[in-house]
Every structure is written in structure tokens, then in C-alpha cells.
């Protein structure tokens, strides 16, 4: 009989929209009893929903959510009598009954809760109050947590988009006026995953770049949709690079353009991140972009000691460079001319290159400049050089000159002969010979 009553009530109201009322008789009766209490208290009406500001609570589909309702009595001497939760309607989806009503009497409640009945003379503590939830959709997933009255909250499990809407919490006290709260439960809609574009507007599929050390880097991160509008930020190793969103508030696409005026060397091999953050409660949607940065060589040095070289012998010079990415190519120049004839052996790894040249010098090469040049072929202007003067040792070349008197000489006149020599190191022991072949 009770079940029938229940059906009739549900169907006639139609606001709950669920014809399949698969609840047991007792529940049904209790619920009907509550309805009567609610309706007869004469407090219901759409007016509330128009006048009360609704606090927006964001939920994530599939997750749990808590809707706050402060049930602290306005004065310490007072106590909560009943709490009702409504959703989009004047029919409660949930109630908390702190009146001292034994549950055994439940089946008689419909009759007991007659107009004007006052069963609230004695009250039970909140933790002992009886909970009643509508057995359909949101009610069946709800529980009202009252461990801390000021932070009492309706916990809804596994929220669905259908749960969105205006919830109202009505708190009836024994003596104080009824209190109402309105909560607008809105579900977070995640944005699209971030898309990264380069300065030419080309979609980056894997790595971005190459960028040149000391030059500009530009990347644009875009996400579509999302409610609330996501915030789009750029990160590197958990440090924020750019948190300024470059789009207008109401546009569908949210863009953050990352501009680094001078790419530091430290960004070589870095992975930048673009994060779309909808809310604190929802996880960020992250897109990682590895970037390629080319580096200038930082060091180049001819490491062979600068010793005197003997002419007509083969000497080796070694030059080393580091810091370049990709590794630098090393070339040798003597007096501004690239050496192509010599034997050059080159070694390199990730950032280090070395080159050994085998060079045969002539006396004419003495004092010329030997240059080792490190050049990053992928980096315009990315070159560095080390230079040194070569010193070539060679044997003396001599010439005899008349420095006083005249030749042919007249007998008895003094002539002075000078021996000039060019040698490196300079000759220091001169010997004169006459009519002797050495
Ligand atoms: C609920 O809040 C959302 C987000 O602020 C808003 O868009 C929506 O209009 C609100 N709904 C109602 C019925 O106030
Ligand atoms: C490259 O070679 C140099 C010299 O042999 C060495 O010191 C350096 O650690 C190497 N670097 C890498 C990345 O292999
Ligand atoms: C200079 O050369 C001569 C002939 O070779 C030699 O006898 C003499 O010892 C040398 N003197 C010195 C100071 O080296």
C-alpha cells in the first residue's frame, strides 16, 4: 500500500523524473513523511533560488565532490533539528533528522508527521541523527558528513554531468530561524591536450628547434576548450618560464607564447613543458617538448708546447676544442692560408674535438702565424680560433762582405771583411778560413 502511495507521489510530482522507484516500503514511507514535513513547514518556494547567491563548486566527472553546508547553530544553546538537501526542485534528495524519533516508528511516520505536529521537543546529537537519501541517481550516491558542524558537507560519489545544477541545503534549528545555502555544482570540462607551434606556425610533432645559443626561441602552446578556461603555462624542470596567457578571456582557444630572447647553453637537450591547468582539483594536461639547441665552441687551443722547430723535419701539432654542439670541425691555417697538404687526424665525441697536424716547415715559415680554427658548421658565426707564431730553427747561411777599404786591394792597405749570417738560433761562433774547402 505504501509503495503505491510512493509511486503516486513520485509520478504526480514528476520533478524527479524517475518513474522506477525501486525503494522499499519503509524508506518510501519515511521519505513521504519527510516530504510532508518539508511541505508543511511552508518555507519552500522558488524565491530562494532567485535571491540567494549560489556558491560555485567545481566537480570532476567520475570523482567525488563535497558540497558545504554549515550547520552550526547561531547560538550555542540551540541545536539542529533537520537538514534537507534539494536539487533543482522543492523535493528533498536527502535529509538528516535529529529529532528523537525511533526508527521503528518509521512506517507510521506518514501519519505522525501531520500538519502542526511537534516531535522536536527532544533532540539527538548530530552523529546519531538519522540519514535518509532518495534512492534515485544523485541521492543514492550522497552522504551528509557532520563530524564538524561548521564544515558539514554532502559528499557525492562519482559525480556525473547530470548532477550539475543548483543544490540547496536547508538547516532547521530548534529555535533559530531556518538557514539556506545554495550551491551551484558545475563540472570541470577538460581542455584538449596542448599543441605546440613554432615561429612559422608549424605544428611541432616531436622535437622543437634547432635553436641557436644566444639567439631567440619562440614556441606557442595552444589548447582548445575547457571549463573553466584553462590556464596555459610553460615550464622547465618545475620552474615556471612563462605564466602569461596571451589570449583574451572569452576565446575558445587559450594560447601562451613562449619567447626567450637569448637561449642559454643550459637549455641544450632540455625538455620544456606546456601545462594546461583547468582547476587545482583537476590534473594538469602536460605536453613535453624536447628542444634542440646548437652551441658555439667555448674553447680552442693548440696544446703542443710552442718550441723551436727544425726546418725540413716533420712536426706534429695538436689542437683541441670543446663546447660545440654538434662537435666543431677543426681547420689549420699558416699565414692565412688553409693547410691542405698536411696530414690531419681528427677525433670527436658529443662536444669535444681534437685534431693533430703533421707539418714540415721551411726556414721561410719562421715567424708565420699558425692558426687552429674550430667551427660549428651548423652555427653561423659559431667559430673560435687559437693562433701562435712558429719558430723554425735552421742552419746559418753566410756571406762575406767588404766593410772597409776596397777590393781589389792595393798592397799595404787594410781591408775589412765581414761575415754575415742568418741562422736560427743566431750563430755565435765564427771561424775564418783561407783557401780551404770545408
Ligand atoms: C553555475 O556556475 C557556472 C560557472 O560559474 C555558470 O556558468 C552557470 O551559469 C551557473 N549556473 C547557474 C544556474 O547559476
Ligand atoms: C669526449 O672526449 C674527451 C677527451 O677524450 C673526454 O674528456 C670527454 O669526457 C668526452 N665526452 C663525452 C661526452 O664522451
Ligand atoms: C768555435 O768553433 C771552432 C771550430 O769549429 C771550435 O774549435 C771552437 O771551440 C768553437 N768555440 C766555441 C766558443 O764554441
TrEMBL record:
Its main location: membrane. One of its GO terms (cellular component) is membrane. PROSITE patterns: IG_LIKE. Pfam families: C2-set_2 (PF08205). The keyword Disulfide bond applies. Coiled coil: none annotated. InterPro entries: CD80_C2-set (IPR013162), Ig-like_dom (IPR007110), Ig-like_dom_sf (IPR036179), Ig-like_fold (IPR013783), Ig_sub (IPR003599). It is found in: Membrane. This is CD80-like C2-set immunoglobulin domain. The lineage of its organism: Eukaryota, Metazoa, Ecdysozoa, Arthropoda, Hexapoda.
